[in-house]
Amino acid sequence: MEEPQLAVKKAILRIVDVLSTLPNVVHEQLKAGKRYAFEDYGTSSGVLIIKSGSFSVYRRRSDLFLGTISAPNVTSFSEALYNNSFHYIKADEACEAILVYPDDFIQAAEDFDLWEDICLVLSTNLISIFVEQNLNVADTAYEVVKNYLLELADMDDAERYKYNVANYIVERSALSRSAVMAILSDLRKGEFIKMQRAKLISVGKLPKGY
Fold it and tell me: Boundaries of each IprA winged helix-turn-helix domain copy (predicted)?
């Protein structure tokens, strides 16, 4: 039986190979830190292919952070099917992306028998969102900060050093910047974490409570 991660990767590549060659797609270079929405391209929804870089996804109504999509990947299937968008994106770094309009996506899925691949990628992306949201399910602000510190600690150095620690936590949670900064300051004083120029260098054994 094929490894799940390999199956997802193959599914993504098959979808990208088909959709990126359609005649009416929009190729876009996303600028780091800039917000993008489907309305910017004259449509209420669509499928997004990310060929390089990464972007964060936010709920439109509440600006709640939902997750990060990194290349290569395809997202926004549900919005395209319902022709309605519930989110916007913000590029974490310079990205190469492709927008596929809803009708073109649905027709290509039918013509090239992509529905099984689409279901696999969609379910994987949803799991990633659920995992991310679980980081915010905590009784105290400290536990939320702790969850995100551990998430950062699990990244390789090159990936982790892209992020300002306080910004990373504030943008992904409902916590105020002052609350996050106070907790980080206390953890640094207690030598539970090591930071340099707002980047996380290392995490020791974090206390259970705060």
Answer: 141-208
